[in-house]
Specification:
It is built from 10 helices and 8 strands. By secondary structure, the chain is α+β, with helices and mostly antiparallel strands.
Length: about 280
């Protein structure tokens, strides 16, 4: 598959730097209405070569000053994957920027060569478009993505005809979290193209994997009591009736493979724009 500006990553729920203006540090940007997500499954042992080839993507786009900015994230758990996530304010903008890149003959030729090398490193690739579902999210936009390092991603496949039951299930979860004043945040997305109907993504940004150490205690006895037996029973019923499958993965943001705006990088320059080792040593 040919990857142009329509590619995406580091999805992770939540990669808004290409759509909204930079806000004060105390007010993280809100998510965009649309995510363009490109998934690549990497052959065993080819992770290093794949990262090197992705760096060529970044360099080509930067040299051409192309209107394509995205965040990359690589899997920590699950299959060896890389996700590229691009924030979008409209579907028309995807077409507009793709046409701009394809109109650049030199860049198109370079992209063809990079894509060919990518094909030797991957077992599969896919492209999805997803729209934000605020009714399924919880305290959306409460964390600055530029300062996050990981994303806990859940991919959910809902049984055909059971979307209303799935929405009811997520609302029970959200209401319980609000009642218990849970210190969490996630965004929810409905995939409308590039995956089976009824595919939803839940992205939870993490500053570190250490945050996961407290999950079990956070959702322990006190939280279960706050939810109540009736709601717990309802959740079990809705899960059984509505959800076909659910997959949990943890991803790490990869600044080398990302092509972010200068404004986004400025919110945490040591991570997104690290100085070369020789220059850092000299200083």
């Amino acid at each position: 598959m040919r990857r142009t500006v329509a590619l995406a990553v580091a999805g992770v729920g939540f990669l808004w730097q290409g759509v909204v203006p930079v806000l004060a540090q105390s007010e993280p940007p809100k998510p965009p209405p649309i995510l363009s997500i490109y998934r690549e499954q990497v052959k065993p042992g080819k992770g290093g070569a794949h990262e090197k080839n992705e760096l060529a993507w970044v360099q080509a786009l930067a040299k051409a000053k192309a209107p394509a900015h995205y965040i990359a994230m690589t899997s920590v758990t699950g299959p060896d994957e890389a996700w590229f996530i691009e924030a979008r304010d409209s579907f028309a903008s995807v077409q507009k920027d793709e046409e701009a890149i394809m109109g650049n003959a030199a860049l198109s030729a370079e992209i063809d060569a990079i894509t060919a090398r990518d094909g030797e490193l991957l077992t599969a690739s896919s492209h999805m478009l997803a729209v934000r579902r605020d009714d399924l999210g919880y305290r959306v936009g409460g964390r600055d993505i530029a300062k996050m390092r990981y994303v806990a991603a859940t991919t959910i496949h809902v049984k055909p005809g059971y979307e209303r039951d799935f929405v009811a299930f997520r609302k029970v979860v959200n209401e319980a979290h609000e009642k218990a004043n849970m210190d969490e945040q996630w965004s929810a997305w409905e995939v409308i193209s590039g995956a089976p109907s009824g595919t939803f993504l839940i992205f939870q940004p993490l500053a570190s994997m250490a945050e996961m150490d407290g999950y079990r205690d956070m959702h322990g006895k006190e939280y279960q009591e706050t939810m109540g037996e009736d709601n717990r029973a309802r959740m079990r019923d809705l899960t059984r009736e509505a959800i076909q499958s659910s997959t949990n993965q943890v991803f790490a943001f990869n600044p080398k493979m990302s092509h972010v705006t200068a404004e986004f990088a400025a919110r945490d320059p040591e991570f997104w724009s690290p100085k070369p080792a020789a220059e850092a040593k000299k200083k």
